[in-house]
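So, does this match?
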Amino acid sequence: MKRRDLLKGAVGTVVLGVGVAPQVFAQAKTDGTPLQFIPKTPKDPNPLENELQKYPKCPYCGMDRTEWNHSRHLVHYEDDLVDGTCSLHCAALSLSLNIDRGPKAIYAADYGSAEKIKPLVNVDKAYYVIGSKLKGTMTARSKVAFANENAAKNARREHGGKLGRFDEALAAAHEDMAKDTTMIRKRRAEKRAKQQKAG
């Protein structure tokens, strides 16, 4: 099965399941849910060039992608619109909300790299360690990408979890979406309450 068909089948229900009719995409003339989530940056045929300068913040959660460079993802759509996200969790949101926009390529940070800023690897070539003790970003169950299969296997041996490819990691991200969203909301509410108390 082609990834585009898989994404349409697997993640279409996430968007349409919340009561968004397909005609909303075609008929809406102004921003609004879900059109507000369509990438707003100009079309970019070379998204990997100066990627962190062009896409510094995750459009879904606002997190700094340089700070979270070890877990960042980047979705390059067929129409050359680009979503640079902090994590697989937010990349899954992008893919769900842009269901009629097929991905040309999807990239993930190579967690196994020794470089300070982890380089991106095409997810078709990546190996994910899912559910290990390695800390996840925007999720309780981590999903960490590696460019090298042996590095992924070594990480799995050391930290647990299971080895998988992108489609399995994406399915796990969708599986975890409700629990993770609840967790994120709770943490952010606690942070706001602490800031109000301090201020």
Observations:
- Confidence is low (pLDDT under 50) at residues 8-30.
- Residues 3-16+34-198 form one domain.
- The chain has one domain: 3-16+34-198.
